[in-house]
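pasting for ref
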Amino acid sequence: MSARDTLTTIAVLSTFLSACAEEPLDDDLAFLHEHDEESLAEEQDGLRPFHVAVFDHEPTEEEIEAEFREFQASIGDLVAENDPVGSVNPTGYVAPGVGQKLVRLDALTSNIPDAGTDAKGAIRFTGRWDTNVGPEYIETFIMDNPGVDDLNRNTTSVFYYLMNLGAYVAGTTQDKFLQGQIANVSTDGWHCSQLKVRDYNRFLSSRLQSLAFNQWVDSPTVPESVWLPATDSSWKSYN
């Protein structure tokens, strides 16, 4: 299966989930139903992931891709179960469209005592990007899905988000990552060894930042980390 088959848009899933609102949904799908593409862009406290995967080790790209295919298949099965006449296309999972990007955050929790956290919705990553039209933009990503036991000691939690660049800076077709910061608004501390940031465009070309924070964040002692600069300062196009 190609990499194109391993990515999905919120819009396609929201269409199906709206049609199946009376059916019981798992945590990932219920969250998607409540947070469609437009509402994600309007979140005041940050973007929330549409999918989270947790590994008890640092996974390979092949493992991450296989898990995402499994997630995709589970949604296909739900479509088939609730739409037997085929009014919704169960294979309509596509890469980000023109002007969109998919952001993947791989959060590596350290292997030291009490490194993990159970603080739901408290861990944030904030990134800064430059744009080809002048203004910079900043977005905060909430690293949590209430139905997933993530950010535990010596694990890797992988979070997926979809962004529309025009909602940040009108006319943007390219961006360049500048710097990133992690934060914790709870007293349940988290020790992050590394955070990997991947931006995907519609051609599934990605750009990787490897941010070695290697520090605690907890409130009120150390609520925010230092800002770490880009490890790849190349421009990426989304047109």
